[in-house]
Design goal:
single chain; 5-stranded parallel beta sheet; two-stranded antiparallel ribbon; 7 strands; 12% strand; globular; UPF0309 protein ACFYZM_30765; SIS_GmhA/DiaA_subfam; UPF0309
């Protein structure tokens, strides 16, 4: 049998990581889902934050067909994806002290809410301070990160701590340092990053589990439907109106 080509190798690597997080992080995923369900049931609000490419799994659960309507993106200008030029500025902003505090102070986040902080390395100032400051406000924090970085790299925050050190619940994405699953002759650098695939799946698993837990409690979770199916816009309009006091991603 001939050796698999890089595309097949990448799929195998991603599937292997997905199996690991499914099996090894099941308890933490369930804990995170319970916290989301508790917050929804208690009238709290849900927020998610990620910088750089870690913003992609965060955005994937906000205003999402088949997703929970109450999840809001906590956006930091300049670090959400590639919304600045040059793109390297976004990486630099992740290392700026004090930015997280300024964002939280001007956001609707308040005590009793939940904030999911997504950071692959968990070592930069922005995600560390986001978690620290949120907890100081009485916000419960779920961290989604790779614990390998805390074991083999140094924190860039003045405290020497990582995101994992300031969370109520931590979910380990199992991504290796460098976020590149493949190597090959003729390609000098490792390639094939899988963090977006795995972290997006983790986030969707947490949301799905939270919806299931709410239903088990007799609470119909406020889920959004696709706007590309008949009746979808009308359904979403009713959900957004009913829960408008906890939804911040639309104009009022």
């Amino acid at each position: 049998m001939s050796e698999k080509k890089p595309a097949g190798q990448f799929f195998d690597a991603a599937i292997g990581l997905l199996r690991r997080v499914r099996d090894e992080e099941a308890e933490h995923i369930a804990d995170a889902a319970s916290l989301l369900a508790d917050t929804v049931a208690d009238g709290g609000r849900l927020f998610v934050f990620g910088a750089g490419h870690s913003s992609l799994p965060a955005q994937d659960v906000v205003y999402r067909a088949g997703g929970l309507a109450l999840i809001n993106l906590l956006a930091v200008p300049g670090v959400v994806g590639l919304d600045v030029m040059p793109a390297t500025l976004g990486s630099a902003l992740e290392r700026v002290d004090g930015l997280a505090g300024a964002v939280l102070d001007t956001s609707p986040v308040q005590a009793g809410d939940v904030l999911v902080v997504i950071s692959l390395s968990g070592r930069n100032s922005l995600p560390v301070e986001m978690a620290m400051n949120a907890r100081a406000l009485g916000v419960r924090v779920i961290g989604v990160t790779s614990l390998a970085y805390a074991e083999h790299t140094k924190s860039r925050h003045s405290s020497g701590t990582f995101l994992k050190d300031h969370c109520d619940i931590v979910i380990d994405s199992k991504i290796g340092i460098g976020d590149a699953e493949l190597t090959a002759d003729g390609i000098a650098a490792p390639f094939g990053p899988a963090s977006t695939v795995v972290t997006s799946a983790l986030m969707q698993a947490v949301v799905a589990a939270a919806a299931g837990e709410l239903a088990a409690r007799g609470i119909d979770p406020p889920m959004l439907r696709s706007g590309n199916v008949d009746g979808g816009h009308e359904w979403n309009g009713r959900v957004l109106d009913e829960y408008g006091d906890r939804i911040f991603f639309r104009r009022r």
